[in-house]
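Retro notes (design track)

What went well: tokenization of the new backbones is finally stable.
What didn't: we kept losing track of which sequence belonged to which structure.
Fix going forward: every design gets posted as structure first, then sequence, in one message. First example under the new rule, 176 residues:
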């Protein structure tokens, strides 16, 4: 049984920002080939098994946006990167498009660190425990443009040298 986050990570649940407006998506990962297009798609069930769970919470306040990601039942002791992307999830992992940027880089794909950084994009680092559970939180000093950010994507992490995000292993539709 996964340990409830109320026990494991109480600090995450005590955010005053949660009283404000925002979005919560809670879904089990399904194959992209499911009869009904899933809210949460796993592209790599060895890392993100079908039936594992994600909850994404967006909380808006006067000064910006807080995003919390909670995973249960994913591969244990695994590092993942979670980013907000512009597009919807689909069978093709590339369908979720590029990262959402507050100030959009005129050159895409964006590699310029002046734009591709964790103040201009929403990026979270997750490491699952022995049960395959993880949670992370980040905050940025801006709000999403309506309709501009439509998914949260989980990537594997290349750990050699500087940590960089790799393959897209899962995607959940979220209208930020
Ligand atoms: Cu990404």
């Amino acid at each position: 049984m996964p340990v409830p986050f109320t026990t494991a990570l109480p600090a995450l649940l005590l955010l005053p920002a949660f009283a404000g407006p925002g979005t919560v998506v809670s879904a089990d990962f399904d194959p992209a080939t499911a009869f009904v297009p899933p809210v949460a798609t796993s592209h790599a069930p060895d890392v993100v098994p079908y039936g594992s769970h994600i909850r994404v919470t967006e909380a808006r306040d006067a000064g910006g946006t807080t995003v919390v990601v909670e995973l249960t039942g994913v591969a244990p002791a695994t590092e993942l990167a979670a980013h907000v992307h512009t597009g919807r999830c689909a069978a093709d992992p590339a369908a979720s498009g590029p990262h959402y940027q507050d100030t959009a880089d005129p050159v895409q794909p964006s590699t310029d660190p002046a734009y591709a950084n964790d103040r201009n994009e929403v990026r979270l680092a997750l490491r699952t425990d022995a049960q395959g559970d993880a949670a992370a939180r980040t905050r940025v000093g801006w709000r999403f443009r309506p309709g501009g950010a439509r998914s949260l994507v989980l990537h594997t992490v290349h750990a050699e040298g500087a940590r960089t995000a790799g393959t897209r292993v899962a995607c959940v539709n979220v209208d930020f």
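Added context from the reviewer: Residues 126 and 170 are 13 Å apart (CA to CA).
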